Amino acid sequence: MNRSEPLQAEISDYHWLFQNSPLATKIIDLNGMSVDYNKAYFDLIGHAEIVLNRFHPSAISPEKQPDGQASFGKANEMIRLVKEKGRHVFEWLYQVSDRGEFLATVELDLFQFSDSPCIRVVVNNNAEKAKTQKQLIETEGNLKILAKAIEQSMDSIIITDRHGTILFINPAFTRITGYTAEEAIGQNPSILKSGVQGQAFYESMWKDLRQGKPWNARLVDRRKNGEFYPADLTITPIKDNAGEIVNFVGIKRDITQHEALENKFRQAQKMEAIGTMVGGIAHDFKQVGYISQVLF
Fold first, then answer.
1. Does a structural domain hold residue 295?
2. How far apart are CA 206 and CA 219, in angstroms?
3. What does the alpha-carbon distance between residue 71 and residue 61 come to, in Å, rounded to a whole number?
4. How far apart (Å, rounded) are the C-alpha atoms in residues 177 and 234?
5. How many domains would you assign to the chain?
6. 3 state DSSP class of 135
7. pLDDT-based confidence at residue 169 (cuts at 50, 70, 90)
8. Do both 181 and 93 map to the same domain?
9. Could you tell me which of 284, 279, 230 has the C-alpha nearest to residue 252?
10. Do 109 and 164 lie in a common domain?
């Protein structure tokens, strides 16, 4: 076997791994001039006339970096640091004509290949990172809005685990029921049962909930002080990615005033009906009186 064959095999294997790496990678000499690059790097930079030739990093960069340093001078300083430390990571602003500028995290590694010292350059485009960070910021903002909405809601909101143990209540729950978070968390919502609804009512409720169906009904609950109150309750099962129920969210509205208004409205309707009936009877009596006068 030719003594150079193992070396050629090593080079061939390395080149295959290098070219098929998903990381945008190029090899530079100790002066910063390009020696080789892979497809991912070419796709990221997208400049055949530059990438295919030996070039200095400043050739695909704006005149100055975000920190105010000249790109040419800073590139040489980064190369000096990696030669001293063996590894160096920093941010770099690239400029490509078809895509404009983009910020990247650059990793430099000093290594020996075939007895020649080289520097491996891995470029991580921060655009996706920035996009992810933006999404995280937006999600965090939405969560804050949601938290305030729950906190300031006039309706009682309660979250339980799949067994019905209370995990969270909002301030309205305490205002309506009289139970504080310390008293309610860890308990079962049955602490609010008034006894007005029978066992069949709750069995029907749990049947729907275990099937993953939202459930809504009017019921009578009991406050901590023993006072009964009418409420409108909606319970929604919360499922995980596998479709398994992991939590229940209950939203309950105290409808005491609503029912009082309904009762007043019904009473007013009754009175109006009675008034109409009495008026009709009076009219009939008048008609009878008029007929009597005519006939007699």
1. no
2. 15
3. 7
4. 16
5. 2
6. helix
7. very high
8. no
9. 230
10. no
